[in-house]
């Protein structure tokens, strides 16, 4: 569809721009940087509007997933769906007080699942060592069954 000002349509013009920018991204970066320096007020207004729209947060999240874990947003969503929408360990669902984080093996970098912040921190505090976690579980079970030290208020 032509806009009346150009000989080509908006769609073709946009496709040509995208191709030009992809062919030489450094030229595009310099052009954008120059425009930002020449138009600081307009640049700031556009940036503020972008942040207000919530698109920046979404974009930052997507690039973080891709950069740090090699995951696309679709892969993250699929993994979360396989976990019934919550933490892979405790099942806690994301909400106002619960945020979910990608859990990965620090030795291999392989993504293991999505965990709530408490479970993710707990694994880290136990140095991701299954033997330590097993010992901690045995410790808790043992002390639930037999109390070696009486709790305050318990008869001796």
What tags apply to this protein structure?
His-Me finger endonuclease fold, single chain, 2 strands, mainly alpha, 7 helices, 59% helix
Structure explained in plain terms:
A hairpin with a 6-residue loop joins strand 1 and strand 2. The protein is mainly α and 156 residues long. It is built from 7 helices and 2 strands. Strands 1-2 form a two-stranded antiparallel sheet. The chain starts with 9 loop residues before the first helix and ends in an 11-residue tail after the last helix. The longest helix is centred in the C-terminal third of the chain and has 16 residues, at 130-145. The protein has a domain at 90-147: His-Me finger endonuclease fold (3-Layer(aba) Sandwich), CATH 3.40.1800.
Q: How is the secondary structure organized here?
A:
Elements lengths: L9 H14 L1 H14 L1 H14 L1 H15 L3 H10 L17 E5 L6 E6 H9 L4 H16 L11
Antiparallel strand pairs: 1-2
Helix pairs in contact: 1-2
